[in-house]
Amino acid sequence: MNIDYIEDFIKVAETKSINNASQLLNISPPALSKRIKQIENYFECDLFYRTSRGIFLTQKGDLVLDELIEIRQKLINLKIKTSSMDTLKIRMGLLPSFSLYRLENIKGKLVHSNIEIKIENNTQILLNHLYNGDVDIITGDISSSNSTKLNYEILYREEYMIVFPEDNNLNFKENVFINDLTDYKILLLNPPCDTLAFIKSNFSNMKLNIECKENLEGIFASVKTGQGITIIPKSLSTRVESMDLVSKKLSDYYREVGLISYNRESIDILLNILPKSFLVNQDL
């Protein structure tokens, strides 16, 4: 079996679609289907079953997927080990909030340490880069992944902030709870969005009025004109200070942001570079 087919198999299993996987892999659907068939021929069994709703793993397919993910990571780790530490480059994926508000004073140190930085808007996109081997380590919302194959290290916890106009009734509340938001339209970014994922994970049983928009600037503009409120991580709340908007913490909830990697060595290297101010609980 061609070693490149490992990524093909994993991507089809993740997307449950030949067409979607082929777009991500930049190959044609017929070519990808042929590769999947060659993998099944190699294992001499059906690894997927096809339906009108998509392509899904069989029981044997689940077994093969777990092993191929582990094999892929072993190959990545082997590549790291065969590189000398002097020339080793760590590719790091960052959330914008982490890059803008936490790395300002150590960007030079990262570059000197041969850390290559890639910035994406949310944790899910960064996780996809990690799964695909495009980056070696990411900073992200720890709760976004529960994979036992990954290593995690919490860096800090931050609150979620409710943002609304000055004349909103929420401004008169000492504490704001999620139940206080049921009468408001909550404006969030289009998925994948960390805050949207947080709300779905914690408040799926609540009838919250959620409307998604294309960008954060559009959301702030809509909030400013009284068309709704929004929820953002605290690290982004400085962006509203000059807009005559009010931000108050969402009581009882926060997110944990940390390092996520298949390789523990990459995490240890970053921990030695990051300053002590990144310790857990610094923001609460």
Structure overview:
- 38% of the residues lie in helices and 25% in strands.
- The protein contains ten helices and ten strands.
- Strand 1 and strand 2 form a beta hairpin.
- It is globular, with a radius of gyration of 22 Å.
- The chain starts with a helix and ends in an 11-residue tail after the last helix.
- The relative contact order is 0.14.
Topology, pairings included?
Blueprint: H1 5-15, H2 18-25, H3 29-43, E1 48-51, E2 54-57, H4 59-81, E3 90-94, H5 96-102, H6 107-112, E4 115-119, H7 123-132, E5 137-141, E6 151-165, E7 185-189, H8 194-202, E8 209-213, H9 216-224, E9 229-233, E10 245-261, H10 264-273
Parallel strand pairs: 3-4, 3-5, 7-8, 7-9
Antiparallel strand pairs: 1-2, 5-10, 6-9, 6-10
Helix pairs in contact: 1-2, 1-4
